[in-house]
Amino acid sequence: MRTTTFLLASMMATIFLNSCEARQYRTTNIPVKKTQPVSSNTGTRISPAAQTETEYQTLMKTYKSETAAVLTDLLNGSDDSPNTSITVENKSRCNMVLTISGNNYFKKIPIGANKIGSAMVPKNQNYNLSGMICNVVYQKTKFISSSYNITLSN
After folding, report:
1. Along the 154 residues of the chain, how does pLDDT read in single tens digits?
2. Of 50, 73, 95, 117, which alpha carbon lies 20 to 30 A from 8's?
3. What is the residue extent of each domain of the chain?
């Protein structure tokens, strides 16, 4: 119990302190495949890493963090609450954009290199979590009924 409390407090402090910079999220899984460059409408080939970085920079301009709601869920989560948190830690050297999609839910979250990002999602649904991390595709389908943490690295 004491270790769990310390771990939770450490995680909360990390999320809070890092929310002042780029957003961070926690998740664990192995990327599934490497991707190939694609052609743009001008005929030049753009690497997936460049596409991801462009999308990341664009999202960072308008993204609204849900840090307070995620911290409240992690510290005081209730079985009666209709929502829960997803936290993803990006332990790679590359920025990424995590896409979370489910039944009537869709969100893109920019997560900086070595940062944590998070989102609140409705409970008891299947979600497709996907993104590109250092030219490698990450994709997982997960039924989320309580707080879910993932750590990604390349």
Report:
1. 544 444 445 555 455 444 444 444 444 444 544 455 555 555 667 788 888 889 999 998 988 888 898 988 889 877 889 999 999 999 999 999 999 999 999 999 999 999 999 999 999 999 999 999 998 999 999 999 999 999 998 7
2. 95
3. 2-152
pTM: 0.69
